Fold these 2 entries.
Entry 1:
Amino acid sequence: MTAALTAGLIGVLLAGAILYLVRRDHLHGTHALWWFAVAGAILVLGIFPPVIDWLGRLTGISYPPVLPIIIGIGMILIRLLKIDVDRSRSERQMRRLTQKLAILEEELREARGGNEGKSASARKDAENM
Amino acid sequence: MQRSKAESESLLAIIPARNEAPTVADVVRGVVASLGCEVVVISDASTDGTAHAARVAGAVVIELPCRLGAWGATQTGMRYALRHGFRTGVTLDADGQHHPSELPALLDAHRTHGANVVIGTCAERLSAAKRIAAGYFQAITGIGVRDFTSGLRVYDRRALRALASREASLLDYQDLGVLMLLRKRGLSVLEVHTAMSPRRTGGSRVFSSWPMVVRYMLHTTVLSFAQIGARRRRAAGIGAAT
């Protein structure tokens, strides 16, 4: 088995897995696009290894095989950063929604009437009537 | 001093509470007795009878379905205050460490000094660790509030609006992050001396154990550095009165 075949196989499997996940609706929009690009890059580099040597010459790296590893790690870091940014955004949204839900629940309780949910002053007024 | 009716109508007491059933009712009754204003208790996903006890004592109770922490609960109260047109918000802890009888003095200081935020500070109760932390934070942020974690505070409507914003939703405590946001918005903060009792139940949420302190200090340091540049705009806005 040649290295090109191994890498090509990994690329095809990854692309297949991503396509499957997108079709099953587990990955949406930009995420799917990103992973398709990753699968495509692996496929190209696997089937045409000279691309790596050419890139190595282009960037001045004397040992070209580390290039895909460096690029890969860089991409993973960017991806992780993006995940944390997204997580912070959803955490903010989740907190605000939780607050709003709780406030609306209390207002609903009050609107439904009964003295149960009313404030001290409102209840006193109700008692005086 | 007797508060006018209009004044207490525009005032809301905000009490965040997590599993404080033994003390919350007394705090609510104390606030109603000393201020005669509406009280909202935000139960932070309490698993005991906190919500029921507060409701029986006469408070409006907002029950968070999942735990948001002390600041998340306090911010809920601020959003409630804005939705219902209150002009001033007073926050205090549900564990009984803040005396409701101190509130009128705090409100008087708020009115006479015209500060957007008034913080009730108990200097005698500050531990050595907290004093060192306060000095350190003053050095890196320029904010010289001694009891920066005090939950006893008065906020005017501008401050409430700043703190109810999305920007404040990722804060975890009612502390330096809040103060830095206030400074960024050009709001003034005043520290006023008040008496407090030791907590009846539990300890400080922040200064509970060394790993927690380290985590808190690192977290707040990062937050402080993220705020560099906002410092120069209004360094004179924060002062103290005793």
Entry 2:
Amino acid sequence: MSKLVPIPSNSFIPERDLDKVPILEAKRLGITFGGLKAVEDFNLTIGRTEIAGLIGPNGAGKTTVFNLLTKVYQPTTGTILLDGKDTAGMNTAQVNHAGIARTFQNIRLFSALSVEDNVKIGLHNEIGSGMWSDIFRLPRHWKSEKIAHERALELLSIFHMQDMANKQAGSLPYGAQRRLEIVRALATNPSILLLDEPAAGMNPSETSELMDNIRSIRDTFQIAVLLIEHDMSLVMGICEGICVLNYGRVIAKGEPDEIKNNPTVIEAYLGKKGAK
Amino acid sequence: MKKLSRNAKSNAVTYAIVVAFFVVMTVLSSTGHLSNSLTGQLIPICVYICMAVSLNLTVGILGELSLGHAGFMSVGAFSGVIVAMSLQSAISSGPVRLILAILVGAIMAAVVGVLVGVPVLRLRGDYLAIVTLAFGEIIKNIINNLYVGYDANGLHIRLLRVLPKTELTDGFLIINGPQGATGITKLSTFPAGILLVLFTLFVVLNLIQSRSGRAIMAIRDNRIAAESVGINITKYKLMAFVVSAALAGMAGALYAMNFTGVAATKFDFNTSILVLVFVVLGGMGNIRGSIIAAAILYTLPELLRAVNDYRMLFYAIVLIVVMLVTNNPTMKAGLAAVGTALKGVFMKTVPVPEEGGDGDE
């Protein structure tokens, strides 16, 4: 792991990514629902190959940040720069095309379709033939189907899921569904992967395997990863930079060790525990 | 590759069913075993199979309820009639005129499909259903007030104003307002109907089992996830809707060319619902189911003519039984035991997505 270094926009990125344009830069991002400021003044910079964590007590606005970054919600204020380019005016599909892929907290697979088809849908913009060659089965259709099939199995093999390719996605065990979502997101060839609670519902050994997987995905695809997670062993284990959110505001940023000992963070979490 | 061959096998069975139906019916009618009324229904059966399969693309595969499918059928029917009748002197070959009529019917229905689809597909669920219902009624009323004539000077088209025959120099009326189209030369044949069914199946099955079809089903299963992997929702919704409309237009042209006269009131809300019943009972997203449901449910009232007074009663009972069987696991199991043939047809229903919509995080 390389050291985090501070950069002018009140953020940190890993030393090795310092001389490159950050993959994601959120500036003064905010959204209001009615009178409620769900996220306010959110600033975050992520290096090109950084694994970053977004943590905070329940209801802090972590998933809302993901929804803002992927334009499921249009931000009320602020800008998002993806690879230096402003994503204003883009919709979710266009943002994905530009390089952000995500998974969901409540799994959103195409559950009636097969595992392989789920990955192929992820490959939609990567490999493809048009409607006419699909309907009339022109050579282009067969060629792209073949490539898509091979690529899908290759991606599934990251999680050793190639044997499940013909199963119905909805019938998979919970952990496998979470992994399939990651594969599907990876299929879109992103430059940053947003994972919303990837370890939810996994046991400790599955979690540690997932940590290895996330690291190897970062290394093989050379992409950045931003993850939301409540499992502190995972967050502290693989994240280089951590951003802590509470009541829609960033309360701390830094390396895992700093965050662990930050009194504001401890208070935010302990306050939650005390209320239970 | 296993997946591909499984699809190919299932498609082959579907095509084989249609071809077998054709062979059996041809043999029965040539040996005189088919009643006159049933022979007369062979072409409408093909038409309704095409309608059901094409509607299944919108309702079962795209997952949007459309209640105006007869509207597209109507557009195809009347534009087909106009083409066939105005080319009567120019092209003597019947089959060529039929093909041209079907093609123009498809194109016109597709154009209307785009015009309707662009605004309508912004809506979802019940709202979309209501708007498509209104669209069907609008089309019906427009054609009810449409007057089209043909003479040496070409086509005369009038809306809301009667076109008297005297205004045409040595010509004839094609569409005469509420009376509809009259004096159509019967061009449709049973083999043509079967070919259209096969073509419809070819288009729909190939579309479903491809990149475009996967995108359409992804939108049905989870719109937010589909967007998140970069699928252009509007494009693929419109694609499914327009292909479905074009195929309905083809069916409409074939239908109109089977009678000497056809009126716009034929393509009303009841027809849309009838086709929807075929789709729902055949199984949403189950193409083979749509074929069989359309064929059986369309012929049923005719077969029950012997018990004329009670035939709607029997029809209703059949509908209720099919509904129960397709929804009840116990009855499904019982039926599966009775016949594996029936099982293949009725149990491959694609589950409808459980959640109602979007943004429910």
